[in-house]
Write a structure and sequence with these properties.
binds magnesium ion; 23% strand; globular; four-stranded mixed beta sheet; single chain; alpha/beta; binds adenosine-5'-diphosphate; 16 strands
Amino acid sequence: MSDEQQRRQSLEQTLTKARVLIEALPYIRAYKGKKVVIKYGGSAMTDDSLRNSFAEDVSLLSLVGIKVAVVHGGGPQITRAMGQAGVEPQWVDGLRVTDAETMRVVQITLAGEINPDIVRLLGGHGASALGVTGIDGNLFIARAKHPRLGFVGEIAEVNAQIVSDLMDDGLVPVVAPVARGEDGAVYNLNADTAAGALAAALGTEKLVYLTDVEGLYRDLGDEDSLISQIGAAALRKLVDSGSISAGMLPKLRSCMAALEGGVQQAHILDGRVQHALLLEIFTPEGIGTMINTA
Ligand SMILES: Nc1ncnc2c1ncn2[C@@H]1O[C@H](COP(=O)(O)OP(=O)(O)O)[C@@H](O)[C@H]1O
Ligand SMILES: [Mg+2]
């Protein structure tokens, strides 16, 4: 290749980069100032390169003026911390009981370890992140889901003002899913449910679940059955048919509740894919499963 050809090729590559940035323009314009809640879980939370990719995406969204709040889970870390603390899991009818000692470990792990870890990660990539728990500002008020399950909470009340104010100030709130109970005790919340309830209370544009599958499958065993878009009514039928199981159920139930509560779109995204968030928000193709009110 001649010098002239090389020079042209490198100019062409630089222009391609510019075009990619320009393609994002309509999306930046559409979402600037709008709110997005992201449930952060699965591999995107444990794999180092995916963690960095997530933090870059959230920082970029925040720095172009999209208001982002993150709600995180921590199931695997809690199980590990309980083992280290020598707390034996107790089961009632196949459900894990959260007694006072378990709840102590849950709170330490979520609020004392995982939450500041995420804040540090985001801060390192340029976002101004700030950690809160669902206890702060009475964000979530809980009641016992079932007397036999101990401190497993269901959400009785959401006071999203504290999160909304932080977002309006250009900060990225990172929320640990624990809550004060109506009885004054501390309760553990399902992070999927907490994310959906927060999105509904904030009236966000989008609610995004980052998880460990490509999206929602009509039939989990069949790769060709990935759903790229589904309306809330059709989703309700699918959920009622009983073919959705495990960790997908709380996400879908929360999506439906959030859409009913005024959220515009919900997404199930593959957190194992680098930059899944950017691809969803800034490209016309979109990825994963989009759920809307249609
Ligand atoms: N129809 C379905 N489509 C996609 N995933 C499903 C479906 N039914 C059940 N699942 C399960 O839900 C899981 C995601 O939830 P979960 O394991 O709790 O992850 P997270 O850490 O993101 O909450 C998937 O890995 C998959 O095994
Ligand atoms: Mg889960």
